[in-house]
Amino acid sequence: MTDTLTSSIEWLDRLVAFDTTSRLSNLELIDDVQKYLDGLGIPTRLTRNEEGTKANLWATIGPEDRGGVVLSGHTDVVPVDGQDWSRDPFKMHEADGKLYARGTSDMKGFCAIALALAPEMKRRNLKTPIHFAFSYDEEVGCLGVRHLIKDVVENLPLPRAVVVGEPTSMKIIGGNKGGRAFRTTVRGVPGHSSEPHRGANSIMAAARIISFIEDLQAELADNADPDSPFDPPYTTFDLGVIEGGTANNIIPEFTHFNWGYRGLPNEVPDALENRVRAFIAETVEPKLKAIAGHAGVKTELRNVTPPLMPDTESAAEQLIRHLTGLNESGTVAFGTEAGLFQQAGIPGVIFGPGSIQQAHQPDEFIEISQMAECVTFVGKLIDWAETGA
Ligand SMILES: [Zn+2]
User: Fold this and answer.
1) What percentage of the chain exceeds 90 in pLDDT?
2) Are 64 and 333 in contact (CB under 8 A)?
3) Gap from CA of 335 to ligand 1 centroid (Å)
4) Is the distance from CB of 177 to CB of 263 less than 8 angstroms?
5) Considering the entire predicted model, what is its pTM?
6) pLDDT at 1 over 70
7) Cα–ligand 1 centroid distance for 76 (angstroms)
């Protein structure tokens, strides 16, 4: 396995050199991977975004007449903008048993291992196929993989399980929170700041909605179930972007803010959205509209990511337990593509090398020992796939 570890590290070096920050194209990386798999005689198929600037790659090693086990990873990474990196984030650097670069743990390390083991998979006589699902735009709402899943469900035998290799320190994660993302635009009535009674201040109106969200968050925390497997054990709100106003002496007409929540899998997902919308309609909008009819608030639902419902009996979790001997599974608060696979009838678990603590951070790294553990795991998966279990 040492050779495979070396080639996994070489593949990681190769993958991180492509700057696949979500706002950029990932086609160079996909092209490189596709050529490599072509060279091994492994069939691939691509699904692209509307503009044709990004693609998902699907590959099948082994028989194509039945569904197999999917190794799933996203190819995009979060931005390095404004982060204090010690070195070039897109050039891998090894020190103290760690490999540094953007995307090493989240999650090109997992993809690199799958690719490094592709020749071995091809060499064996697999009875159960192994698939690769490498997606785009995961970090901006799990957008890309939706096209890949649609293609698979409509055109190929349904896979029996998916392993989403997000960094879990090689522990089984059987559930994650789902999420909704919104953009709210408050339209006020502009005027001179010396005459606030003639205008409607969109920033102040936005602030009232935001404090309502903050109060709602406190209420959820107060009523949390201490036995919930999630940390934190309640639905959390996020508010990440706000923009509004032009000058101190102008009553601001427009304010926009992006917000959302990550909910527990067993919660009714509409409930919180409805409460915020009701507060806006009953408390905020009437005051704006009293100044001018065209003033008001619009809230656009931008993204829904389903939760991964924990299911210890699922084919995916049973397989990983069988291969690793692990007999526990946990949950995480971050969103993943696993819930989308599950929703499509493909049972999934999250299981991959590296720690989520390093993800999205400056000087992101993955420990080589984590890579080695994952190489061993994929080796066992190959053995299993060969026996046709
Ligand atoms: Zn990730």
Assistant:
1) 94
2) no
3) 9
4) yes
5) 0.89
6) no
7) 8
* Alpha helices, H only, the chain: 2-16, 27-39, 109-116, 118-123, 144-155, 202-222, 270-279, 285-291, 315-324, 338-343, 368-387
Contacts of 141 (CB under 8 A, 6+ apart): 181, 302, 303, 305
CA 323 to centroid of ligand 1, rounded, Å: 23
Task: State the distance from the centre of ligand 1 to the C-alpha of 106, rounded, in angstroms.
Answer: 5
Task: Return the structure tokens found at 75.
Answer: 């190819």
Distance, in Å, from the CA atom of 18 to the CA atom of 32, rounded to the nearest integer, reads 10
Q: Considering the chain, what percentage of its residues have pLDDT values greater than 70?
A: 99
Question: Domain 178-305 belongs to what architecture?
Answer: 2-Layer Sandwich (3.30)
- For residue 223, is pLDDT > 90? yes
Residue 318 has pLDDT above 80, yes or no: yes
- Architecture in CATH for domain 2-176+307-387: 3-Layer(aba) Sandwich (3.40)
Residue boundaries of the structural domains of the chain: 2-176+307-387, 178-305
pLDDT attached to residue 2: 62
Secondary structure (3-state) at 37: helix
In this structure, what DSSP letter does residue 198 have? G
The arithmetic mean of pLDDT across residues 225-239, rounded, is 92
Distances (CA, A) of 389 to 129, 283, 315: 11, 60, 12
Here the contacts of 239-247 (C-beta below 8 Å, separation 24 or greater) are: 239/210, 239/213, 242/206, 242/210, 244/186, 244/202, 244/203, 244/206, 245/202, 245/203
Pair of tokens at residue 320 = 């990983």
- Taking phi over 0 as left and psi of -120 to 50 as alpha, with beta for the rest, 105 belongs to alpha
pLDDT of residue 372: 98
Residues around ion ligand 1, judged by CB within 5 A, are 106-107, 166
Looking at residue 335, what is its pLDDT? 85
Buried b (16+ CB within 10 A) or exposed e, 74-112: bbbbbebeeeeeeeebbebbeeeebbbbbbbbbbbbbbb
Average pLDDT (65-81) is 97
The owner of tokens 């399980």 is 161
> What are 139's two structure tokens?
């970090």
* Contact present, 89 and 346 (Cβ < 8 Å): no
pLDDT of res. 315: 96
Task: Measure Cα distances from 186 to 100, 205, 275, 298 in Å.
Answer: 43, 7, 17, 7
Measured CA to CA, the distance from residue 242 to residue 212 in angstroms comes to 16
**Catalytic positions, please?**
76, 138
